[in-house]
Design brief:
alpha+beta, three-stranded antiparallel beta sheet, 15 helices, 12 strands, about 35% helix
Length: about 475
């Protein structure tokens, strides 16, 4: 009988001697060695498969769809390339506020907004089909993978440290209230224009180089509205981000990465649901993708070599996104499906470990494995790693909460993969979720794998995945018969 964890696991990882297989596994490729796996995990193969991805949703792993992308899904809200004069405004602000951006942890993410990334709709739709909302992972024929906090941190440049985005909306000083009032006054002035909207071009024209004392806050408000937390009204300033812009303008770190990732998970679910409805009924409700979905495409390019366009060289000081700026490569839906199906031997579990000129990997990437003794007050690279590999509830704006299950994709962090146990988070409150996200560490030590280590899977995981695949195949046959 498998033992399962239906609540939050006390510890982050486990070290044990296990029967291990390389990935992808071969029949005789088995060895007994020391392993480091992420918790919670199961000690034997479960009979009921409740911890597996949803079989119905996972049928898309076999789907060889040749459909054109749905007209009911709009990516324009969240996929925002640089507007006219934006790059110039970034350069002007950089000369005055670059130190503030570094303190606030937004330097790379602001610079990343000046790069144009060409959208590949076929790619986005095919990968959207592979998404499982139950596990917040992509389900491929050979395993699970997902966009993690590490990806949002590296590719988007969003901070893992700082205040919760929700509590940052509370202004704490008279000066902050005064600046917020100035921004709201400008916002209302935009609403009084003939268009009755405070648009991005209008906002830039009002503040760029005009000598306003709130120019920096206005600049950050546009950045947040267009590139980080776009609203449901296309091309409009989102006034709810004004307090956040004010805090960042003072060099105060705000933990943006979980909020951004939560919005991506939300919209991947919407995209998947629209795909299922269209498959069943030939129609679906209109879906607005508001998250910065270019990170989904960058994630695919980083990890699937056969789907990559020709990457750019990263010059010193440039963000990781510069590798993909203004590059493109077209694929048919069939080509993308095939690339996914045969990707197992080539999939890059740790693309950021690869040495690239001009790129500095996260601090927790080590040349040699490390065992760091930690107390309850963890800091530095160990704390960044803890946030990335520990299951949690991600806190976003406007009450958004999404589940984060890194223990299902342990190889993306250099750890061995065991059978992931089910976690049932009870909280629907952002305060409780944030307290849990930043909770103290109970482990006495933290194993940090070498960036060159090639992780594997436990023998029981290999068996579990094969059972899941067979169950999914049988379910598919039943659906076809009906």
């Amino acid at each position: 009988m498998a033992t399962s964890s239906n609540s939050r696991e006390k510890y982050i990882m486990k070290e044990s001697n296990e029967l291990m297989r390389n990935f992808p596994s071969k029949r005789l490729d088995v060895s007994f060695r020391n392993s480091h796996t992420l918790l919670p995990s199961l000690t034997s193969v479960p009979i009921d498969q409740q911890n597996a991805p949803s079989p119905l949703e996972s049928l898309f792993m076999f789907n060889q769809s040749q459909r054109t992308p749905s007209n009911h899904v709009s990516f324009e809200y969240g996929w925002r390339n640089p507007q006219e004069n934006w790059s110039l405004w970034v350069r002007n602000m950089h000369s005055r506020f670059q130190d503030v951006w570094r303190r606030a942890g937004i330097y790379d993410s602001i610079w990343g907004s000046v790069y144009q990334v060409h959208k590949n709709l076929d790619l986005l739709f095919v990968f959207g089909e592979k998404w499982c909302p139950k596990t917040n992972t992509f389900v491929f024929p050979w395993g699970e993978a997902t966009i993690t906090l590490e990806d949002v941190f590296v590719l988007g440049g969003y901070s893992l440290l700082g205040e919760c985005v929700v509590t940052s909306a509370f202004l704490v000083s008279e000066d902050e209230v005064r600046i917020n009032d100035r921004l709201l006054e400008a916002y209302r002035e935009g609403v009084r224009t003939p268009s009755r909207k405070t648009t991005h071009p209008w906002w830039l024209e009002q503040f760029m180089g005009k000598g306003s004392e709130v120019e920096h806050e206005a600049f950050l408000a546009l950045w947040l509205s267009r590139y980080v937390f776009p609203g449901s009204n296309l091309n409009n300033i989102v006034k709810e981000v004004f307090p956040l812009a004010i805090r960042l303008a003072r060099g105060i770190q705000v933990c943006l990465a979980p909020a951004v990732l939560a919005s991506i998970y939300r919209d991947l679910r919407s995209l998947k649901n629209a795909t299922i409805l269209e498959m069943k009924d030939g129609d679906s409700p209109r879906v607005k993708i508001q998250a910065p979905f270019l990170l989904v495409q960058l994630w695919v390019w980083e990890r699937f070599p056969t789907l990559q366009p020709r990457p750019n060289a990263i010059r010193r000081g440039e963000p990781r996104i510069s590798r993909w700026g203004s590059t493109s490569r077209g694929f048919s839906v069939q080509d993308i499906q095939l690339a996914i199906r045969i990707a197992a031997p080539h999939f890059l579990w740790r693309p950021y470990a690869k040495a690239l000129d001009g790129f500095v990997p996260p601090a927790f990437y080590s040349e040699e494995e490390e065992l760091e003794l930690i107390g309850q007050n963890v800091s530095g690279k160990a704390w960044l790693l803890v946030l990335c590999i520990r299951p949690s509830v991600l806190v976003g704006l406007k009450g958004l909460l999404e589940h984060y299950f890194p223990h299902r994709v342990a190889m993306q962090f250099g750890y061995d993969q065991d059978i992931p146990a089910t976690i049932e988070f009870k909280t629907e409150d952002h305060i409780v979720a944030w307290r849990d996200f930043t909770r103290r560490v109970e482990d006495r030590s933290l194993y940090i794998p070498s960036k060159n280590f090639v992780a594997g899977v436990t023998d029981r995981y290999d068996t579990w995945w094969k059972v899941f695949m067979e169950c999914t195949r049988i379910k598919g046959l039943e659906i076809l018969r009906t």
